[in-house]
Amino acid sequence: MVSLKGIRLRWFALAIAVIAIAAGVYLTFFHSRGFEKTTAEIVSITELPKTLEEEDTQYETAVRYTVNGTEYTATLDTHSPSDAVGKTITVLYDPNDPSVVHGGGGFGIYVLIVGAVLLVGVLASILIGRSKLKNLKETEAIGKDAVYPAPALGEERELYFLTDLGTVKVGHRIEDANRTVLFEAKMTKHSLTSPYEFDFIDSVNNVTKAHLVGHEESTDWNSLFIDNHHTFRFDGEDIWKHLKRNGIRVESSLGGGSGKLIGVNFTIYRDDAELARVQSTSQYVHEEDAEAHKVASAIPVRGFYRIRTKEQNLELLFVTLLAFARTEASDASGGTRKALFNTLKGE
């Protein structure tokens, strides 16, 4: 099975817009072609049974009208909230078979307008997104032009990667044992059809840089041998290609504290030199918080990691952890099964 989500909402909306426009054109210009107008009286409005609890209530409107001295009663193919029993409305009937009747309220025009507005909105979001990416590339070294600081090693330290929960504008940060934020990504604009806009803030070096982070996309296969794939676009480039191009390699395996299985652990390399060792944790990444909440061998929460690193320049490490935090991937190609195979090989 293939499951696609995320930015593909844009293409789904585009498809809906095209379908709505086609339906609107058909209903407006072809559905009642050759039909004639007459007046009809609404004789009943019936509430239809729901198939799902959350489904909107649907109604069926029956009308009575006369054509060439013959009276007909028929059910309309549309219903308006303004309909009421006894009200006189205009309908369209087939002169070759007057029992065939359509609502004459111009429903097709509304469908056409909705489709056109949706189409314009989707196309505008695509153009705006491309324009923003172009402007960022002209003002910032991003995407394929990204330049990350050279490695700067110091004493090894323990850091913590956290993800905001319970908010639409999901952000991420790296902080130290004193809970001082060293590097963070704050979402400045949330969008359903365009990449999210973030400010990446390096508090140590007092540098802020804008980035475009795409929606997560996934391809799920019901096979052990064909791996799932999870990714997003970072400044217009696939995040895993972005990391690979910048020398990132990741070894992953299942494991955790005291050898107990609690999640995926990563060893991150840059140009084959170890950058960091990362352990998945619960949302309580600080040991004292985990202890206070009685967390032992916790089920990990995606986007929360404990880090051991000598690296002082945190930007590339942050982007790497961002990739794992925003996807379900467990290796640096976007897959989910390499960690399992690495674990099996190690036993």
Strand runs, count: 18
Note the total helix count. 6
Percent of residues in beta strands? 25-35%
Q: Strand order, biggest sheet?
A: 10-9-8-7-6-18-17-16-15
Instruction: Report the span from N to C terminus.
Output: 31 Å
Extract low-pLDDT stretches: 1-6
Radius of gyration: 29 Å
* Overall average pLDDT: 84
Structure classification: alpha+beta
In this structure, how is the largest beta sheet organized?
9 strands, antiparallel
Order of helices and strands: HEEEEEHEEEEEEEEEHEEEHEHH
What is the percent of helical residues? 25-40%
Describe this structure in words.
It is a single chain. The protein has 347 residues and is of the alpha+beta class. 26% of the residues lie in helices and 35% in strands. It contains six helices and 18 strands. The chain has helices spanning 8-30, 107-139, 239-245, 287-292, 315-325, 338-346, and strands at residues 36-47, 59-67, 70-75, 88-94, 97-103, 153-163, 172-175, 181-189, 196-202, 207-213, 217-219, 229-231, 233-234, 237-238, 248-255, 263-270, 273-280, 305-311. Strands 10-9-8-7-6-18-17-16-15 form a nine-stranded antiparallel β-sheet. Strands 3-2-1-4-5 form a five-stranded antiparallel β-sheet, with no helix packed on it. Strands 11-12 form a two-stranded antiparallel sheet. Strand 8 and strand 9 (196-202) form a beta hairpin. Residues 1-6 have low confidence and may be disordered.
